[in-house]
Amino acid sequence: MSLTALYLLVALGAGLVAMFLRLPPLVGFLAAGFGLHAAGVGELEGLHTLADLGVTLLLFGIGLKLDVRSLLRPDVWLSTFAHLGFSVIVGVGLLAGIAPLGFALVADADLGEMALIAFVLSFSSTVFAIKVLDERHDNNTLYGRIAIGVLIMQDIVAVAFLTISKGHWPSPWVFALVLLLPGAWLAHRMWDRITSTELTALFGLAMALVPGYWLFETVGLKGDLGALVIGILLGSHAKAPALSKVLFSTKELLLIAFFLSIGLTGVPSLEDFALAAVLQILLPLQAAAYIVIFAFMGLRYRTATLASFTLTNYSEFGLIVIVIASATGMASAEWQTVLAVATALSFLVAAVFNAYAARFINLLNRALPERRSARLQEADRPINLDGAKALVVGMGRVGRTTYEELCQTQGYQVLGIEHDSLRADSLKAEGFAVVEADATDQDFWERVKKGAGMELVVLTMPFHGDNLLAMDLLRKLGFTGTVAAIALRPEERDELKKRGAHAVLNLYASAGSDLAEKAIRVNLERRATS
């Protein structure tokens, strides 16, 4: 128990330090793992099992929210393979170039081993990228869907490599996995009858780990891939979003074990650190390649950059690949420690990239010629405001009600803005005038500013930080119309007013006063008729 307490305290302390330094907490967890190993602290029993569970639930959660059709998009599969080829070529060139600098591990490597290391470094971290998207609440934005699609394609490539490198093909029973399709139908019917939150969570865990992880491992495939597949098969159920939310906290806690376990891979030498640092040179080159490829695929500079920076890091799956490769003699086992350090450092680099993404996007927009609408994908083209006088930004429950009140009762011509493509499509089918767009995108607000007759903007996004950012962009661009927003706490209301909001509604306070007013009115009516 004392060892568990030590791990918890060190992880918490390192996570807090990372947060104070404006870095993702996971960077602190990685540092905690290296620190514990360097201090000679024994490994916590079951840590790797918890780490595996975290990654499994992560992929299961991705599957619950994944539209399989997105994998068939050229900007997903073609971008994946084009970038992989570029990364291998550039990676081999870098390793060959630094071979004379005194790194024994590189000097002893032949061309095949260099190509393998470059291949490993071409993968992006699913864990890090999903964490970035979760923190921004951007999983369902255009760039978020593209990034997730590329990550899954990379995982499929990694699974194929691992299958081949193990020296044996999957069991013939792999073809029996087609029975998962009717099995998913039965699972849906069972799920329909589950009403308890506890049973919902248990159902999700059981599906991810039994027909998902265990079954795929049994037939010779990667268990994480099984969890992803089961998540996809269950993702069409109406309760899938609720299950994803129920499992969210559990997944987050288990992923702490994952990042700690990376740091516990070994105590790197100074030469290991130096080589891992040199390997970071590949990251800006890979980021630039992603931007060029995505732009060629018809994405705006902003979309291409955000997707690129989300993917600019090294992968935990790359560590799994190098472990298998070293076990089969394809690469030296010393690469495991070097690549673990390189992966940890890449998360630091990626944190900086993502922190300055907005500035880099503005630089690209100023330095490069404006993209013609005809050459952009339809989902990334400028928005036609169609003479709307009011914008409702965020079409959740509050936004939908606001839209209906403005349109039906007040007679405004209203346009709804929603960054979640699934929700936007659903609302369009119901007859709402809605466009898919990101209200934290400066380009979007510049188009709003140009919209003739725009009088009112109502910010109903569920996350206070998004409303603040939208408020700042409106003020920066000189919007002169009326801005209203929602808040959950008094301090949020005050902050929005300081940023320039003309009206702020405290949802909880408003709900309480409305309920009290209605209760009193009904009570008086009942007393009058009794």
UniProtKB/TrEMBL annotation:
Q: Membrane topology for this entry?
A: Multi-pass membrane protein
What's an example Gene Ontology biological process for this entry? proton transmembrane transport
Pfam families, A to Z: Na_H_Exchanger (PF00999), TrkA_N (PF02254)
Residue ranges spanning the membrane: these are: 46-64, 76-99, 111-130, 142-164, 170-187, 199-216, 228-248, 253-270, 276-299, 311-331, 337-357
Start and end of every RCK N-terminal domain? 387-505
Determine the domain of life of the protein's source.
Answer: Bacteria
Cite the GO molecular-function annotations of the record. Answer: antiporter activity
UniProt keyword terms in alphabetical order: Membrane, Transmembrane, Transmembrane helix, Transport
Subcellular location field: Membrane
Q: Which GO terms describe its cellular component?
A: membrane
UniProt similarity note: Belongs to the monovalent cation:proton antiporter 2 (CPA2) transporter (TC 2.A.37) family.
Checking PANTHER family in the record gives: CATION_PROTON ANTIPORTER YBAL-RELATED, SODIUM/HYDROGEN EXCHANGER FAMILY/TRKA DOMAIN PROTEIN
Q: Know the name of this protein?
A: Putative Kef-type K+ transport protein
Q: Which organism was this protein described from?
A: Nocardioides panzhihuensis
